[in-house]
Amino acid sequence: MSKQVAVILSGCGVQDGSEIYETTLTLLRLDQLGIGYRCFAPDIDQHDVIDHRNGEARGEERRNVLVESARLARGDGLPLEELEADEFDAVILPGGFGVAKNLSTFAEDGADLVIQAGLQEALADFYEDRKPIGLMCIAPVMVPRLLGPGIAVTIGHDPSVAGAISAMGGLHRSCGVEDIVVDFENRVVTTPAYMLATRIGEAATGIFKLVDRVDELMDL
Fold first, then answer.
1. 41 has which bridge partners?
2. Domain locations in the chain?
3. Which one is catalytic: 12, 39, 137, 175?
4. Active-site residue 137, yes or no?
5. Residue 61 contacts by C-beta under 8 Å, 6 or more apart in sequence?
6. How far apart are CA 196 and CA 191, in angstroms?
7. C-beta neighbour count of 79 within 10 angstroms
């Protein structure tokens, strides 16, 4: 049986959901390595809906995180509550502001963020079973609340976000866009992706390294 990875999404679109390029590059690299995957997302309303042409909120418009995530998963997205860690060998979370709005309250609360309950439950089983966890872009900011203090992660070198990670008890490591930070003890792999990337090729280098390292950790 091939390895299986769960990919947790937060919508569709960098400003109010999952970052599309980060998600696509993750799925591409998994496929290139012959690793199976399934996409999951919470069945909740988005925090807001953003017009990606101008960055403005679309008033009272409402969208569902799971429905929007299914756009990226080509209709194959499943409710986060159906994610069973024992059916997968690892889990990966792409970034995008949906992480800070839908999977957590970081966009509003900073270091006082609250993690979406379904995500907290899902990731706890992966962590307790010592299965690799990959996070990219803004997603590593959740690690101190999601998994506990003292875990080394990176979001690149943004001082305010790095400071929030430190304030929550995390260990931030500065990192270039094309590299990764690996906490071997906790089996957590992170990369800055579009926290720093200016081109899709830059993002791809770090994301491919992350997926490759997650693949290696699944064998340990």
1. 79
2. 4-218
3. 137
4. yes
5. 49
6. 10
7. 15
**Nearest CA among 19, 163, 26 for reference residue 102:** 19
| C-alpha to C-alpha distances, 220 to 151, 166, 215, nearest whole angstrom | 19, 29, 9
Provide the 10 A C-beta neighbour count for residue 133. Answer: 25
Q: What is the pLDDT of residues 120-171, one digit of tens each?
A: 999 999 999 999 999 999 999 999 999 999 999 999 999 999 999 999 999 9
H helix runs in the chain, sequence order: 20-32, 65-72, 97-101, 106-109, 117-128, 143-146, 159-167, 200-218
- Bridge partner residues of 39 (DSSP): 7
3-state secondary structure 9-58: CCCCCCCCCCCHHHHHHHHHHHHHCCCEEEEEECCCECCCCEECCCCEEC
The pTM of the full predicted model, rounded to 2 decimals, is 0.97
Q: Is 1's pLDDT higher than 90?
A: no
Can you tell me whether residue 92 is helix, strand or coil? strand
Structure tokens at 91: 């889990």
Residue 189: its pLDDT value, please? 99
Place of tokens 């996070």: 135
* Single-letter code of the amino acid located at 219: D
CATH for 4-218? Answer: 3.40.50.880
Rg (CA), the chain: 16
